[in-house]
Design goal:
With 275 residues, the chain is of the alpha/beta class. It has one domain: TIM Barrel (Alpha-Beta Barrel). Helix content is 36%, strand content 14%. The strands form three sheets. Strands 1, 4, 5, 6, 7 and 10 form a six-stranded parallel β-sheet that branches. Helix 1 runs parallel beside helix 3 and helix 5 crosses helix 6. The longest helix is centred in the middle third of the chain and has 19 residues. The protein is globular and about 45 Å long.
Length: 275
């Protein structure tokens, strides 16, 4: 699914180095949740405004990868907004903000949990959180938002045998395509975990690319199955958020911090193995 979007002019000075970025969000929510993967709605709105002032136009992953923009010069800077898990809060908070600013995004949904609560996750006694339902997903797809797969049951793909792995990848893709009537090109690997077997299976199942939680690496058409993303979290100050796009020492420190967060996500996998 490709859409051509209006690129707004940038009246300010561009202080961001590089051309392409992919941000990874999970929750944009006012409620207190047992996770650091949450951003307050007001903070998210400020982040959108900041990206706009820096000449970065938030778009879908397909827009970024295919470089489908009205302005195609080398100085054009793009940022794909991606949202893992497909939580209800996207519809409640993110959707209105993106519509207001004429931006777009890619949402990765877990097909087994569409319209259900996140019983797959560790909640530490908190109430489970609701996911988007199919009606909402179809509405978003019709409005130009890209829907990707986050597999069928959010398993750690590296621990699965070949048969279950292919089911998780293939069934979720086909189910989404059947529901929204559009092609699903991208997979977001649960917990950011993948290996050579996962990459091979994703290609065999018809995906065009996949996103990780690795903040390092280069966005390149030469390898679309290990696309790096910059995670956004509750503790990100305005300075932290700005640092994600810089290649100076502050930017390298920020990426190292994101890499550490990705490593400790193993905790959820370990707990789930004992449930």
């Amino acid at each position: 699914m490709f859409i051509t979007l209006k690129v707004k002019s940038n009246p300010g000075k561009n202080n961001i180095s590089g051309n392409n970025y992919i941000l990874a969000y999970h929750h944009v929510e006012r409620r207190i949740l047992p996770t650091i993967a949450r951003v307050l709605p007001d903070t998210f709105y400020w982040q959108l405004q900041y990206l706009e002032t820096q000449g970065l136009y938030p778009c879908t992953l397909s827009n970024l990868v295919e470089n489908i923009f009205p302005c195609r010069n080398s100085s054009q800077q793009t940022v794909a907004l991606t949202f893992d898990d497909g939580f209800q809060c996207f519809y409640d908070y993110v959707y209105p903000y993106l519509e207001e600013m004429n931006f777009s995004a890619t949402i990765f949904v877990i097909t087994e949990y569409v319209g259900k609560r996140n019983s797959w996750d560790v909640n530490f006694g908190f109430k489970n959180i609701k996911h988007l339902d199919w009606q909402q997903i179809k509405e978003l797809a019709a409005r130009g938002y890209e829907i990707g797969s986050h597999t069928h049951r959010h398993y750690n793909l590296t621990q699965l045998d070949e048969k279950v792995l292919k089911f998780e990848l293939d069934y979720s893709r086909k189910l989404i395509e059947d529901k929204i009537g559009k092609k699903v090109d991208f997979i977001s690997y649960p917990f950011g975990r993948f290996n050579s077997k996962v990459l091979r299976s994703a290609k065999e199942c018809g995906y065009q690319g996949g996103v990780t939680l690795n903040p390092f690496g280069v966005i390149s058409k030469e390898d679309l199955f290990q696309l790096p993303r910059l995670g956004v979290y509750l503790w990100d100050t305005k300075l932290n958020f700005k640092s994600k796009f810089n290649k100076n020492l502050g930017g390298r420190i920020e990426k190292a911090k994101l890499q550490a967060i990705n490593f400790f996500a193993m905790g959820t996998i370990i707990v789930n193995n004992f449930r």
